[in-house]
Every structure is written in C-alpha cells, then in structure tokens.
Records
---
Amino acid sequence: MAWRSSGSSNAALIANLAENGLIKSDRVRKAMLNVDRAHYAPESPYQDSPQSIGMSATISAPHMHASASESLLPFLHSNSKVLDVGSGSGYLTHVLANLIEPDGKVIGVDHIQGLVDLANRNMSKSAEGNDLLASERVKFIKADGRKGWAEGGPYDAIHVGAAAVEAHGSLVDQLKAPGR
C-alpha cells in the first residue's frame, strides 16, 4: 500500500499513510504531521519513496519512518533518550523528538559532516526545529554510528537507519533494559 500513500502536501501524505494502515497510532500520525517533509527532502517530498539527499545518501520513504516510529513507540515517553544512527537529513530525528515531548532528547549521529550540517540546516527551517536545537533536545553529531554515542546514553531506544553488516555490541551496551 505504500505506493498509494503519496500526497500533494504533508497533510495528504500523512492522511494517506494512516488510511492505508501504515500509520497505526495517533501519536505517530501527529508527530509526522508536525514535521513538514519538504524541509528534509529536496525533491518530491510528499511522494512515498526514498529520495536522494546528496553525499550518496537518501531519506527513507515516509512509510519506513512510520514503521520505525510505530516499532519504537512503546519505548518513547516524555523523558526518553533516543539515539538515531544514520540520521541523514534529520527528518526522523525530528519526528522522534516530537514523540518524546516535552523533556526527551534525541541524538542524531552520522559519519559524514556534510550530512550533520544538512540535518542542522533542515531542522532550522521551522520554528519548532530551531527550538529543539536551541534547547539541545535534539543534537546532531559526527561520529562512527557503529560505536553509538556513549556520552548521551543509556538510551531508551536506538534507531539504526544506516546500512550495517552486523549488529554492533557497543550499541546494545548503550541501550537501557528494557529498551529497543
């Protein structure tokens, strides 16, 4: 059903994802609705498909972001700490921050400085994004995501959006129990 979920606006995209059963919870629907994908995807932002963001990276399709958010939802509370490995454009990092309002923190990690800079620029396109950055509820860091970011842990949830050959023990070590 993902191929039928595209829309002409952010609101239409999110409504179609929900109508097609790809967004199941109201929390995820609201969190995604409050982040305009046009700030993060340079072309066809409301199409439910991956988009190139440069530097040999992509922003995942919106249905994948919905799936990741739904999967992590039981571990996302108002004061949760979340690590987003392979944060790329910063879109999912922003959605995750919305899911852990008002006091949670999200750290986005990417190994390419240009993507860290892009994520900061993208998030700065909205007043809410600026507030998240200024309050340090969201922070983007250049680091080797395979090693996580121990300084911010332990985490209630770790999302790995970057390609990985294997599960890395250092990420598991930074996860709270229970956590996901």
---
Amino acid sequence: MAGPSLGAFGEVNRAFWDSSAQVEKVSTEPWIQDLTRQIFDHLRSNTAWIGLEQKPQGAIRMLDYACGTGIASMAMLPSVTEIRGIDVSGGMVDKYNAEARKAGMSEDQMHAVRGDLLAPAGGPLQGQEFHNFDLIVMSMALHHVDEPDKIVAKFVERLKPGGTVVIIDWIPKSSRADSGTASDQHQHSDAKHTISFDGFNKDQMRGFFSEAGCLSSDFVLAESPSKVPPDPTGQRQLFFAKGIK
C-alpha cells in the first residue's frame, strides 16, 4: 500500500533518512548523542520559558514534528500528557515508536506517523488528532525544509490559542545571532543534498513567527557551542526560538 503523500523536498529527505544506516548513525554517533543530550537538558530545564508551567490542569498535547528518534518528546514527557510525532522517514518513525513503547508509553500517550505538512492537502494529518496542540516542537530540522516560513505557519495553524511553537536549530556560521543570512553550506557532506539553509538568525525567526500570526516570540542561544567534528570549525551554535499564538 502506498505511503502518505510527501512534498518534493520531503521526498528527498525521506529517501536519505529512511536508510537504516542513517537511523543507526543518529542513535549511536558520539557527537550526535552529545548534541541530543544538550537539547534534551535545555528543554527539560526550561519548561517555564516554553510556557508549560502556565498551562491549566488537564490534558496538554504536544506535536513533535520531524520527530526523528524522539529526543524532544522524551524531554517533554513529564510536562505533557499526549504526544504525536510526524516525520517524513518511516525508519525514524519506527525507531520513535519503539522508544516510546520501551519507555512504557501507550500509543494513546505517544505515537508517531509518517507524513509531511507541506504535502498537498488530504490524508490523516488533516484530522483532529493532528490539530489543537498546546506545544509544537521542531528540533534540528528547519534547515532541511525548503520553505521554512510555510512550515512555521502550518504549526501556528495547528496550535490552540496561547499555544507555543519551539524551533531548535543552528545560527548561520557566517553571522551572529542577530544578523546575517543563511547559506547552503552544511557539516554533513553526505546529507548536503537534503539541506536548504545553513541556519537562521534572530530576525529571520522573529519574521517567521510574526508572519504566521504569533503574538510574541523569543530567541535564546544555548549556553555553550555544540561540538560538531564534521564541521571545519569543529563546533556550531544552537538556538532555541519560540512563538506564542
């Protein structure tokens, strides 16, 4: 049976990230594991900044988009009650769901599907299960999207009023956090064809959120640069950006 429809660039990413070798690399490469721990720790220790501590008692729903193996979901588990993941890669989705079951989460609590919000309309992602989220997180994947403004707008459409979108990615190597433009360079030579941007700066992220209808936004840097051995400089700088609907 045919899988869900993907956009053109989503198909490029699916073809690369569906490889069992890439799934294994994400799960075992030491520098990637260090990076995921850095992201996990920052998310877990900044729930107030994310806005979850201000949510009323009851169900708190999260979408982990481009979920990969589920690092953002695992970080948010203590603070949310229901998580849905979406990824263009079936291999990543399988790994995500296996990790969720290993953590004792039922499908109702934490489950991912393959899909692409930039694909032509239709299919299961149009249902209520994939709308009305309190929190949407996209970690280390916006630079893989050829139309980042459109994906941010899709996220905001699927938030509840007062909900938060959190984007985690690199700042451009050629700029500081508040200036500069993205380029087509990337540290993974084998993944270069899946990359649209080298990173994003504060003004770009503020623009994406504002154009999508967010009432406010914020942009902070990780406390320290991330070690990235494949990069010529040996390190990159993470940012954490949020928009509130």
---
Amino acid sequence: MAAEQRKLLEQLMGAGASSRHAQLSLTDPKVCRSYLVGTCPHDLFTNTKQDLGPCPKVHSEPLKSEYEAAADKTKYGFEYDYMRDMQKYIDECNRRIDAAQRRLEKTPDEIRQTNDL
C-alpha cells in the first residue's frame, strides 16, 4: 500500500522530488544560510504584523547538522550574512515602531483640547 502511494506521489511530483534535498550542499544558493547559522527571519513572528511569510529557500535539518559539525565555519562567511540579515530585520522593525509612535503623538491642537477639559 505504501509503495503504491509512493509511486503515485512520484508520478505527480516527479521522480526527483523525494531526493531533492539530498542533492543540495552547504554552499548551494537555494539553501537558507540564516537557518543554517541560527534562526531564519521568516520563521520569526509568524502570524503577526511583522510576519515575512514563508522562506523561499530550503531549510534542511541534515545540512544544518553538517554545518554545526564543520570544523572551520568562518570559511563560509554565513555568520556575517546572518548578522547582516538580522540587522536589516531589526532596522525594519525599529522603523515600523517609530512610524507607529509618530502616529500616536498628539498635535498641539489635541494637547490644547485635552488641557481645556
């Protein structure tokens, strides 16, 4: 029964669909570097206003384990990319917070009206 279902699934999705992640390497541009180093920004704040949606790159647990086991992680430069991406995300969050706070600030007319009450 399982073999029949697997065969049908391969017919629908193509023969290489099941082994797609096995063919990727750490340096493949399709692999999410942020996921390998730590946490992908797309996985943060899901179902909130800050949600970035699903990550377009591959999140592979075997590749993450391979990266964590690597002796010389600095040769890849993934940590730098991770810090750069996270800093961009933090800056975007701070920009949205500042914009929301500016919208909440009272105008001089509103301050005068509340003081007259």
